[in-house]
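Pipeline run #58 for the internal structure catalog. This entry was flagged by the ingest filter as a single-chain record with no existing model, so it goes straight to prediction. Upstream metadata was stripped on purpose; only the residue string is passed forward. Reviewer on rotation: M.T. Logging verbosity set to normal.
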Amino acid sequence: MKRFSNVTGFKIKAIQTYNGSKFKNNILSSFLLAHGITHETSIPYEHHQNRHMERTNCLILEIARTSLLSANIPKRLWPFAFKHAAFIFNRVIHANSTKTPYEIVSVLKPSLVLLRVFGARLYIFNPLHRKDLGPRGMLGYNMGVAPDSKGWIFWIPDKGNLFIKYTNVRFNEKISFMTEHVSSIQASDIFDDSMILKIEKQDMLVASLNTHSDSSTVTPMTFEDVTVSPQKDHWTAAINNELKSMKDENLFEIVNLKDALQNQKVSDILSMRWVFTQKKGPLRYKACLVMRVFRQTKGINFEETFTPTPSFGVLRLLFSIAITKKWVIRTFDVKVAFLHSLIYMPAFVWPPQGTNTASGKVLRLNKALYCTKQAARCWWQHLTTIFVDIGFEPNKEYLSTYTYLSALGTSLLWIHVDDGALTASSPKLLG
């Protein structure tokens, strides 16, 4: 505290600590009394009174843990990892502030010239062997910036865990203590040849039982590949199934190109491509039309794309309420959810390959396909409208959560895209 006052010029008037024997002792009390510093302590087990310190300690712990694990440094060197973490923490801007902690205290912008990867390999110039035939350098690992000096602290395992401060070094931040030790492990130390032989035999047996393992079955990359594929009939059937599904869902409406050009330019008309996949199990052929959304232009064929998603903390709260009150819980998901919502801005598409659309015609999108940029928002708006119409009230703070109040009781609804959870005080409200 003396050093802090000398360096910053600030006079410490009060400190707050935990209400433990570590801070409540005669030595600290005498020091604080001599310097006129008030000592405030938190109430036992009321951790929220030290929430800022708790949060800071957690953040520094996370940085230190990550540094140790990423470099595979022994855990006994944790003090260096924590000092390195504190060095980083004090030089990063945090929430509700426009300055780093270092700048707030020192009024100087921090320099990151000395910041290096924790645990990185480095070579230290050895001044003791300038003239003899001994090695000119030593291999070590970075343990962070040395306090009160313009250099680093190095760990040298080969010298009996020697720690030194030095500046004349050469870093190799791509190699750490972990990288070297992992690369020294031989494949024979990990794999058992007899086990590999057993696995290969099992794979051969499974392959022999698979009646559909035809090496000639190649998945087409384009529509043109389908026309020359040995499985042309299967892929054509998959294409027809996809087009039929879209027609049944009323996804498109055929319109004249002239009518489309009244609202948009030719370059604004979107296009689609076919994507083909093979489903294992019994072998199934699947064709899917996807939109080239990179050609969508804001203000022409889409406007707003933001879609609120609820917190999983709210879902846990919903489950907690249901369990406490012994309510019934139902979970559900909506099949092909986006295909149920209307699109709110005109979007026109060139007819895809494989359709017999007449010349001079284009397709107008009626529904928000999965691949369009506004699809998720259209679905959320569509869903909210339905819930409001049947009596649910959206939560203004936690969007995508809804409450229903009636004479029968209370219902709570949580929606995450097309997955949902519903609980109610009465089974009658669940339908």
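catalog note: Residues 46-185 form one domain.
catalog note: The chain is about 30% helix and 25% strand.
status: ready for reviewer M.T.
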